[in-house]
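Page 47, continued from p. 46.
Same chain as before, 239 aa.
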Amino acid sequence: MSGTLTIDDQTIPFTDGQTIIEAARTAGVYIPHLCHRPGYTPHGSCKLCTVKVNGRTCSACTFPAAEGQKVVNNSEELQEARLRITQMLFVEGNHFCPTCEKSGNCELQAVGYHLNMLDSHFPHFYAHRKVDASHPDILIDHNRCIFCNLCVRASRESDGKDVFGIAGRGIQKRLIINSPTGQLKDSNISVEDSAVQVCPTGAILVKRTGYKTPIGGRIYDQHPISTIACKKRETDSTG
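Result:
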């Protein structure tokens, strides 16, 4: 089964089972997002992909595409809401781009550029979260985690493991490691795991690889996220 919907008055085809964000991506239409990745179960946690469907507000990554839908993606109201969400993500953690080795490869940073984010708007939390450098090949900087759940889903759905989880609510929410000690070194994670590669920020890093590609030559230094996101395919979920 297939059909068409419209996004900002542009006719977009879809196939049965596609969500709005996947129909849009396949047609080359970018809807900002951070917690979505093709091939993984939709989660709807970041809310950046919020759109209006026939006047109803919904997350494009979880809402099924259907015949005749009229989707609004680029309104001033939605762009303002996305900007505020992105600004909140920056201040709730410690995202200091000039000193982060993920700069230029970071989806959060790239979304900020896409939304023309010029300041953080809100007061910084200056969160005090731990860094887990216990594993010989992988480091987790909890200060940069945005709780997108991508590593949780990747570990379960792609790697066949259960390395990560999210515990707590609100300001107490945190990424946890499912190991006897709660440390990464005592888990069954491997540097080849999809869960290590899928993080949209600098929260999960592979050691001794940070500056192999110089700043200025990285993916979002070369192309805007709106272009890169629409080139991704289902196989991206494996690496």
